[in-house]
Amino acid sequence: MKAIPLISLGLSLALGAGAIFFGREFMAGSAPEANAAIAAAPVMQMTQIAVAKTTIAPGKLIDPSMVELRDWPVSAVPPGAMRAVADLGEKAYSRGLLVAGEPLLAEKVDTTGSVLTLAANIQPGMRAVSVVVSNDTGVAGFVLPGDRVDVNEFVEEKDARGAPEDSRRSAHVFAQPVLKGVRVLAVDQTFEEGLEGARPSNTVTLEVTPQDALLLGAASRRAALGLALIGREEELAEAVEAPKVTPQRPQTRPARIQRAPTTATVRVINGSNDTHVTTPVAPPAGPSKLSEGAG
Fold first, then answer.
1. Residue 46: how many other CB atoms lie within 10 Å
2. Are residues 236 and 123 part of one domain?
3. 270-285: b or e for each residue (b if 16 or more CB lie within 10 Å)?
4. How far apart are CA 281 and CA 269, in angstroms?
């Protein structure tokens, strides 16, 4: 009975030693093949491209401190990627939002200085004000940046404060102009001029004076607003029409009339008393008329 456990133990040791021996032989035989496969694998070639170091807002001047070089696989380099910070030139502006780690592409960087933001497109002394429009109030999307429009308001009769001369009434609604000949700066988030076709939008940004900005804001809260598109030929006619100059008459000052005094102050000395008395003065006599018989 004691021999059976010894035999089982011997068989276990023999099988274990055999497994270790054959495992080593198998590993030793497959190692050269694995090394050969690794050696035959192509090495990934790397290069450096310029990427944004931080988030850069649209239209912002790109400073060299905002850019860094980063290793990038050659096969994955996007077209137009900048390879050095010097490619930015003296001045470069972002054409769109650049997030940290994004490659700087030529199409998203402007090195000519011609990039515009909406603020740069506003004339000095003017303001940009947005109004909410729809297809029926925004000329079905045919209002584009660079156009000129009239702004009209539509007020319910119960909310109208009188009826201006240039207003029109339909049923219980008054229609009256708010501003005329206003330039359109942007449609939604697009402010590029020269667009064609229709661009349905929710907001239209107009260029107005500071006083008209207040008027337009109050009108948008009081009533519904609508836009009326002005034709190009009418714009051209207004642009080439010479302003009428009204001749000004030379301004002359009327001669000052010296009026004679009506009172006079007289000094009266009576003994040791010295007083001043104000007395009326008779008007000067007119020039004497010669009699007809005088020779």
1. 13
2. yes
3. eeeeeeeeeeeeeeee
4. 20
Q: Are residues 232 and 183 in the same domain?
A: yes
| 262: in domain | no
Successive 10-residue mean pLDDT values, the chain, 295 residues: 67 73 65 60 83 86 91 91 89 84 89 66 86 71 84 76 64 82 83 61 87 88 84 63 48 58 68 69 58 44
- Structurally, how many domains does the chain consist of? 2
Quick check: is 88 in a domain?
yes
Q: Are residues 104 and 144 in the same domain?
A: no
Q: Which single residue is written with the structure tokens 């009506």?
A: 262
Is 70 within the bounds of a domain?
Answer: yes
119: CB partners within 8 A, 6+ apart: 128
Please list the alpha-helical segments (H only) found in the chain: 3-40, 210-222, 232-240
In this structure, what are the phi and psi dihedrals at residue 129, rounded to the nearest 5 degrees?
-130, 135
